[in-house]
Amino acid sequence: MSAQQLLARRLLSLTDLTSLNDSDDDSSVRNLAALACTRAGKVAALCIWPRFITVAAHALRDSGVAIAAVANFPAGAPDSQAAAAQTAAAVSDGADEVDVVFPYRALLAGDALAGLSLVRACRAVCGPRTILKVILETGQLGDAARIRRAADIAIDGGAHFLKTSTGKSQPAATPEAAAVMLDAIAAAAARGVAVGFKVSGGIRTIDDALPYLTMYERRFGEGATSAANFRIGTSTLVTALLAILEPAKAP
What we know:
This protein is of the alpha/beta class. It has a single domain, classed as Aldolase class I (TIM Barrel), CATH 3.20.20. The chain is 48% helix and 16% strand. It is built from 11 helices and 10 strands. An 8-stranded parallel beta barrel has the order 1-4-5-6-7-8-9-10, surrounded by 8 helices. Strands 2-3 form a two-stranded antiparallel sheet. β4, α3 and β5 form a beta-alpha-beta unit. The longest helix has 16 residues.
């Protein structure tokens, strides 16, 4: 296997294959599930609207690919009870992971307690098995101080992962925002708290993904990444990776 193929297989294993389009239906989710698990390898998770959890679970049965559903998405409303109810429903329906949007507008308005309350409420209903990823929507938070504040609040609330963006607003993921989030994750690690990192929003190619993988490993050690601590949220990267891993046979 070539170096490029080894990299492609590694990136594939770290990917949350995502579709959060208004046009999604049962058929499109089944097609996505077929991409999620192939002979060339499988992704870490399939990230979808919660109404498709049952369809995805059937399509991915015994594959080892996790099912991630979104909550409080994409608006990031400050209603902690509503977000927790959505999270609880996703867990009940079979989601292995929930990606919930942090109430970033509330933080921009000076309300830090809304974020802490929401993340704590969602973490509580996740129980011991379901992973909670908190989407900070860093492009809307803007400056480093607000991104760090949101990251610290999410960690204090019990987030298992910090995620950059919903992908529904611009700017999406940026290296500058990622660096701030990794600082917060490193500070948590120094306290004995393990928090993962997910980059999402505008990650379409290997060249888009690789800088974030490199940033993470420069901070936490070469080879430190695994699906337990690093994810790439994308709707298109998987096709490029599979093209490398399963090149078309020459006629």
